Structures are given as C-alpha cells and as structure tokens.
C-alpha cells in the first residue's frame, strides 16, 4: 500500500502518523497563564534533546486558529513542569486533554492535588511519579500548521521514592503510560534485556 501525503489534509496525515509512531511517551504539562490559571495538558510528541544540561522537547499544535494554552503560557512565563504519569493516572491524563476555555484550570476540574515547585512558580502534581521543573529555552515552528517545538531545560527532577536504583530509573516500577493512535493508551508489557554494548562515555563523571 502506498500513500501520497500531498493528497491528504493535515487531519488525515495526523491520524496516520500517530498510528505509525508508536508507542509515544506522554509529557503531562502544568503551566501558569499570565493571570495565574493553572493549566494541565498531555503531549505525546515528546522526547529529550540534551543530557547536559538536561533538555526536553514537546511539540504543541493549535486548537483551531490559535495556539494551545500550554504554548501561550510557556512563552509568556517561561516556566512549566513536565510529569510522567503511571497507570493509575491514565483516566486523568486522558480527561486533561479535553479543551476548556483558557480561564478554566484542568487541575481544579480533575481535583488533582499540587505541590509547590522548588525553583519555578508553576506547581507540580502530587500524584505523578516523576515531575521535572523546566525553564523555556527555545521555540521552533514547523510545517504549514506551524506546530511549535518547545525546548526547555530541566532545573529540578522529582522522582517517587523507590524508582531510582544505582542512578537508573526502575522502569517497571515507574509503570509509565504511552499514547498510540486515537483515544488509546498502552502500558509497557514485557521488558526484554539484551547484552550491554560498548559506548563511548558521554563525559568523565
């Protein structure tokens, strides 16, 4: 089967790509509006782009003709928190994707408890096993839809007790959820460990 992307609209290409690029980790992002409304939204176009300093990237699209609240908030305040959610939080993650007016807080709607961050003003979610306080560093726009790739630096990591062993995260204990095509989510399933291969050290520490 062959599909010519020039013959498809943006919505159909989106459906195709979100079914192909799977599973995708989910950045569950809290951000503050200029008027102090705490926004919460999930983004599955998400990865890390640097280890020193630690930097993460999320792709934020539009809702209609305007950018989503998360993009506005990050560019206005330059602070936000990226969380990694586990299985018990799956429904809350999904429900936080419902579009509300910018003066409505998804955190309040869902009744989620927050904790003050240490280095930024944006609160973090108490229930999330991982929270990363971020400061905005760069924004790039791509494509006809002008999706915004937002890169931020992690200035503080918060991880649930018991998740880190010898400097590495115990992924099975983390139990992260992932996004696949449509309103569907996935868990890790079987974890396969292969032989360690040589890699040049990334630094002396």
From TrEMBL:
One of its GO terms (molecular function) is oxidoreductase activity, acting on the CH-NH group of donors, NAD or NADP as acceptor. Its cofactor is FMN. The keyword Flavoprotein applies. Keywords: Flavoprotein, FMN. SMART domains: Flavin_Reduct (SM00903). The keyword Nucleus does not apply. Residues 19-171 form the Flavin reductase like domain. PANTHER family: FLAVIN REDUCTASE LIKE DOMAIN-CONTAINING PROTEIN, FLAVOPROTEIN OXYGENASE. Belongs to the flavoredoxin family. This is Flavin reductase.
